[in-house]
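Researcher: Quick test of sequence recovery. Tokens follow.
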């Protein structure tokens, strides 16, 4: 899965999927990292805030990746 596909899912169906996204991000470091590549697009404030609370931005937008 790419970040763009997840971004679309959360933009169109965020309230229905955000609980599952949060759980997956907490149990999978790779998923949390991929979530870091999601842009807000048309997500509601609530969904966007919840995404930001569980994403891993290391390596995205100039944030240094872990060594």
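Model:
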């Amino acid at each position: 899965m790419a970040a763009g596909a997840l971004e679309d899912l959360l933009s169109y169906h965020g309230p229905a999927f955000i609980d599952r996204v949060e759980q997956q991000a907490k149990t999978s470091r790779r998923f949390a990292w991929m979530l870091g590549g999601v842009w807000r697009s048309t997500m509601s404030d609530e969904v966007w805030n919840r995404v930001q609370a569980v994403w891993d931005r290391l390596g995205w937008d100039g944030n240094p990746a872990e060594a």
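The chain is about 65% helix and 0% strand.
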